[in-house]
Amino acid sequence: MTDLRKRTKSPAEQTEAEKYANKEAKKPTFSYRESPLTVLISTSLHIRAIYHIFVAILIMLLIDTVVYDLIERGKINVGLNVIANGFGDIGRGVRLWLFDLSIALAFYPALKIYGSSRMLLKNLPGLQRVWTGFGIIGLVSLETLLIAVPTWDLGRQHLAIASSAAVTCEMFRFVMKIHAVAISCIPRFHNEKIPLPTFKSYLYFLFAPTLVYRDEYPRTKKIRWEVVTFHILEVFAIIFYNSFLWERFILPYWSDYGKQPRIEAGTVVRGMFACVLPGVISFLCGFYCLLHAWLNAFAELLRFGDRLFYEDWWTTSQFSKYYRAWNLVVHSWLRDHIYKPIAPSAGKVLATFIVFFISSVAHEMVLALSFGFFYPVLLMEFGVLGLLLLPLTDAIGRRFPHTLNLLMWLSFFFGNGLLWSLYPMEYFARQNCPPSERDSFFMPKSWSCPEIILKPNWTFQNPFDIIH
């Protein structure tokens, strides 16, 4: 009797094309998915009410500021100066972005030339190995050029904070994009039956809201322009919201920091706690702006069907799940191109450490080039404390999920309060303190200027003593 069942081929029997197809099938697939907040806001009246609460808070703070400015100053100033200063010299920022874009576009013809030349050498394995070495050197050189030129330019002359942040984020985005394409082409170089990416696919990937390369992605049938407009308006509203928080809550506490030679420790501590609430609001707004509104706007413009850019990180009780769910776009790239290649030989612990180190250094570079100084507060919070909390919260979070979720949110409050205090302190200390021979990009100035002192004759009274 003939066996009609389909027999699975062994790896030795499979062709290169079949091996590649099987390997691609095992990779995480893209599908038609909406962002979690899109689903929650559209299906839950409770979540929609929370969204409306944030909008109402913005409107009330705006009204409060307008009334205050009209009464005290006779004019209206609601954060527009902060936006103008933050995006200052935007033309220089655009030029740096165009440079990075030109390097990313030049990568494609270089890839085609490399692939065609390699096929010509298919019967000369020795020369193929040499050509592979040249290819690796060329890729590393392009990635280094993408990072080095903007870094040199921003280090030579400081650019406005928001413009610098945009340039540095785009710099890293282009590096990760071309690296992902190069890695995806490795099996194609070994078999001419598997074509290299077309320029159309490559160009689409450069602007698609993902860092994981595929020749094709799920595509929606049409662009919903009302969705694009709504998300773009949200982006502008959140930029205004953050600039408003900066002007309303940060500048009053820290803009004069360093003008006086001494400052009381109590004033510093009080200012830090005053920055906790605006810090966490800015943290939530930044997440919503970049990972929800901005990416969904681009996804809709490009008809990109998979919009799972993050998961419900706000409910987690483990830092490991938070780091995975917070930004699936970057996490997927780090997993595929850093963690998975390293883990089999280095082990999971070392691979995790390397991933955290690379990610924290990249984040710190964005802040250092944006502010114009190196002050590794985020590096310590994310790359050191966050890494140490991984095993602790993994063990305890499973047993006490609700308690650990509360503690995680407390850490978000305190962590963002410190970020919104220490970076402005250093920023304004460098502006207000007298120049010194010890001034350096890497040496914090706020540690020595101004001098932090205890309040003279300070005493503590028992708050429970109500008998006088």
Automatic annotation (TrEMBL):
Pfam families: MBOAT. The keyword Transferase applies. It is a multi-pass membrane protein. It is found in: Endoplasmic reticulum membrane. The chain crosses the membrane at residues 49-71, 92-111, 131-149, 227-251, 271-295, 349-367, 373-392, 404-423. Its main location: endoplasmic reticulum. Keywords: Acyltransferase, Endoplasmic reticulum, Membrane, Transferase, Transmembrane, Transmembrane helix. It comes from the Eukaryota. Residues 1-21 are annotated as: Disordered. Belongs to the membrane-bound acyltransferase family. Sterol o-acyltransferase subfamily. This is O-acyltransferase. The gene is LOC113517407.
